[in-house]
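C-alpha cells please, single chain.
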Amino acid sequence: MLTILFDGIAYGMLLFILAVGLSVTMGLMNFINLAHGAFAMVGGYATVLLMQRYDVPFLVCLPVAFVGVALLGAVLERTLYRPMYSRPHLDQVLFSIGLTFMAVAAMDYFMTSSQQIIHLPEWLKGRTEIGDGPWMLGMGHYRLFIIAICAALTIGLQYILAKTRFGSRLRASVDDQRVAAGLGINVNVVFLLTFAVGSGLAGLGGALGAEVLGMDPSFPLKNMIYFLIVVAVGGTSSITGPLLAALLLGIADVAGKYYIPRFGAFIVYFLMIVILIWRPQGLFVRKGGKA
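Here you go.
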C-alpha cells in the first residue's frame, strides 16, 4: 500500500515537471502549445545520446538538457511561435500538432523507432525498504531523486513568480500587455524568457522520464493527454494547481494499474471528469488574473 502510494507520488512529480512548462505557456501566455511533449522528447534523446555515445555523467546531462532545450525553445519562439500568439486557438492547436508530428517523424528517421535505454548511475539504482508486510514502504532511489528535484523546482518557481521582479513583470504582461508596455516592460522579452524556461523544464522532464516512461519517437503522442489533464485539472494560473493535479493523476494511475489493470485508465479519466465538473476552471485560480 505505502509503496504504491510512494510510486504514485514519484510518478506524479515527474508528470508535474513535464507539464508545468505547458501550464506556464497556456496560463501565463495564453498560447496552446501541444508540441510541448516534443521538447520533452528532445531533452530525453539528448540525455540518451550524451550518455551512450560520449559517456557524459547523468547529473551533467540534466542541466545540459534543460539549457539546450531552453535555447531551442527561445529560437523557435522568435521564429515560429511569436506570429501565432494573436491567432485563434484552433490555429495554435493545428500549428503545434503539426510541429509534433514533424518532430516524431524526424526522430523516427534519425534515431529509428526502437526504445532507447538509459543507464542510471549505480547510486540511483538501489531501493530502500522500511517495515514489512502489507504496510512495507519500498522507495526506489531514483524515484526519491525525482521527488527531490520536483520539490526544489516547485519552491524555485513559486519564489520566482511571487517574489521576484521578473515574476511581477510576467504577471503584469499577462494581465494587460498594453499597460505593461506603457510601464516600460518589454513584453516580447518577458514572453521569450518564459517560453524558453517552459521548454527547458520540458527538456529536463524528458531527461528524467527517459528511464521511467521510456523514450521513443512516439513519446510526445503517448504522453500528450497526461500533460493536458494536469493542466486542465490543476488550472493554469498557479504552480500549486498543476502540482496537486499531477499528484492526483500519478497516484490514481499507479493504484489503478496495480489493483485493476484492465480498468486503470478508466479511473484516471473518471477522476478528471469529476473534478472538471466540480471546478471547470481548475483546482486553483489566481485572483485578479485570467481564469
